[in-house]
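User: Some background: our group keeps a shared notebook of sequences we're curious about, and every so often someone picks one and asks for a predicted structure to add to the entry. Today it's my turn. The entry only has the sequence so far, pasted here. Could you supply the structure so I can complete it?
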Amino acid sequence: MWRLAAVLGIPLGLGQSEYDAMLIPGWGLLVLPLLSLAQEGLAWLTLGLVRPWGEVWPRWLPYFGGRPVPVLAAVVPAAFGAVACSVYGVLLVWTTLHAEMDIAPWGNWLLTACYLPMAAWGPLLGAVTVHYYRRRTHG
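Assistant: Of course. Here's the predicted structure to add to the notebook entry:
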């Protein structure tokens, strides 16, 4: 929501230097929404670790359709994603605490409220990945 608001020109308490860093106006008008869509797509895949549809390939897929998803085909990318999201979460918190941003105090609170849940995504993804592995391997 934060990125889309920035692209739409909704005031977020940011100074012009912050918009310049996000390449707005310019490529940021394309990159920020695409980044959000990519993250939403990956978040949607996370649901496959806790829902039955994550255990069987969709029927419409040629060759794979209706077959069980190999456990490691789900666990390896999910584990990599958990590590990557955890590292990103740590960097996000560190940057939030130490960055010198051109932002109003209310904008900083809004930014923190929008991005803080991302810091928890890595550990939570790790937990559901372990659960998926244990459930699918009975171990």
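Suggested note for the entry: The helical segments are 2-8, 16-21, 28-47, 71-98, 105-137. The chain has a mean pLDDT of 88.
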